[in-house]
Fold this sequence. Notes:
Blueprint: H1 5-21, E1 31-36, E2 44-50, E3 59-62, E4 80-87, E5 95-99, E6 102-105, E7 111-119, E8 142-144, E9 148-151, H2 153-156, E10 159-160, E11 168-173, E12 179-181, E13 193-198, H3 201-204, E14 209-212, E15 216-221, E16 224-231, H4 239-257, E17 265-273, E18 284-288, E19 291-297, H5 302-317, H6 329-332, H7 345-362, H8 368-382, H9 391-396, H10 401-404, H11 413-428, H12 435-445, H13 457-464, H14 467-477, H15 485-491, E20 494-502, E21 507-508, E22 511-512, E23 514-517, E24 522-525, H16 533-538, E25 545-549, E26 552-553, H17 559-566, E27 574-581, E28 584-591, E29 596-604, H18 610-618
Parallel strand pairs: 1-11, 16-17, 17-19
Antiparallel strand pairs: 1-2, 2-7, 3-6, 3-10, 4-7, 5-6, 8-9, 9-14, 11-13, 12-14, 15-16, 18-19, 20-29, 21-22, 23-24, 24-25, 25-26, 25-27, 27-28
Helix pairs in contact: 4-5, 5-7, 7-8, 7-11, 11-14, 11-15, 13-14
Amino acid sequence: MKKSFLSIVVTNTFLLLNLSIATAQNKTNEVQVSIDLVNINNDRVAVTIIPPKIKTNETTFYLPKIVPGTYSEDDYGRYIDNFKAYDAKGKELVIAKMDENSWVIKEAKSLAKVTYLVNDTYDSESGSEFGKGDIFSPAGTNIAEGLNFVINTHAFVGYFIDLKELPYRLSITKPTNLFGATAMIDLDKSESSDVFTASRYAELVDHPIMYNKPNYTTFMVDDMEIILSVYSPKGTFKAEDLKPTMEKMMKAQKKFLGKVNSTKKYAILLYLSDYETSDAKGYGALEHNTSTTVVFPEAMPAEQLEQSLVDVVSHEFFHIVTPLSVHSKEIHYFDFNTPKMSQHLWMYEGITEYFANLFQVNQGLISEDDFYERMAGKITNSKRYDETMPFTKMSAEVLKKQYKDAYLNVYEKGALIGMCLDIQLRESSNGERGILDLMQKLSKEFGDAKPFDDSELFDKIVSLTYPEIRTFLTTYVAGSTPLPYDEFFGKMGVTQTKIQIPGNVFLKGQTPYITVNPSTKEIIVLPGIELNSFMKSLGLQGGDIILAVDDTAYNLDNIYDMIIGSMSWQENDPITFKIKREDKEITLKGTVQIPMDEVDGYQATDDAKKTIREAWLKG
């Protein structure tokens, strides 16, 4: 955003005032950070960091290369402009930029402060203005002056080498009409600023903040306070409207978790993007120990948005078990620039994803058949990856290209590892104990302040369970043997079968029925293929150009909205398509007929194992 000359003068005057105020050395043993959300400089936010007295001749300042939960090298330093270092008299110190994420500061003993400007990531997601691939939106940032700021703190606040373990004090100057939602406690009750503290850098960057005009709600789940804040640019969604679904879900999660219950405040920050503009397009969520950032398109139908929130937020919330309460030293002492990755993504992400599905059947939010259908889908998806790749190896080497491409399998096979381990525990204990019992014991053994050695986890698990669990872990997690899913399902009296599931009117699995002409942006029904029952009943033909559905015009620019919108269509609802066929516009009217797809699935068939099966799913 280009600013007027007057705005630039005002901004520069503010920065000079800040500089004169900070002439005295920081006498405290904390790192003081200031972020200015009022005086925006050409779509950039000014950050000032004042360290305590540095005792070395030079020091290095970093922005993270990678942050926990992303498992990708994103180089947040590439979004930094005008990095400068000053002494107490306002004199610039000599700096040397070493790479995208680090700056060496000479004469560090006289360092009083560093300043820099932060660009946001959402504006560059489609064009990669900053060189590399896009940052996953929930781990990114937004700067929309006067409207919204997504403050993933790892992208705004850096750290000095050897000072990461010092306390941080974060002061944010903000527009008075914007509310900052976070799991942190605001120590400044004024309308124009917020102040937060953290015990160390890792704690600060674990707490995102989202500022926008108040659209939030709070509720209590036992003794845990939940805050749900929503940014909906067109005003489509209100936090209060989403509250009943989220409250029901989180109460069910708390009931499912039982004793694993240490978090006192949890924040859900939901950013709804405008797909038709230069906005966030990486949909999903990023976990933090006491919060989650979520990005979805605002065009989503309400029912689909609510279910998507249940699925992704429940996953992120279960991270309060692992890695919050159970994690290795690689996680606890995470190196943001030269990280050593843990072997145990199968636990951090896989068991978490499994819990996000298991608790729903356990608490009656989905049916037993729904649960089997979800697991069958994960089996299908997992087979797109190398089934012989040891999960511990993939986890430890996930930043290397040959393993990075397999990362998404943590949500497929990782969850299935959790399921099969749960089944094995149930069989070994005659239904008395499962994976939740194991995680409760591990949480009690370790907790958030006591990390384990990566190489010792299997031994600890076996000591808390049964000898056959070692065979499971070494064979299917550390080994190259594919999981025999039918064998494990069979232990619970569940067998493979073919099932019918509702499909999408524009897609058959991953195969589309439509394509686009990039030069005209027209949406075209694919010629030469067997169309589904809905298209046939409506009279669509291969080669037809779809112009509009129910009076809403569509083309390449908003095709995503059309596909997303179709997911909320109901059987027998009236529907109207406007098409072009052989240069003639035609209106087709009919009713929605949801096509059914036949896929591999599972069902309970052995009533002799009903007791142990119910212990698994309902216990």
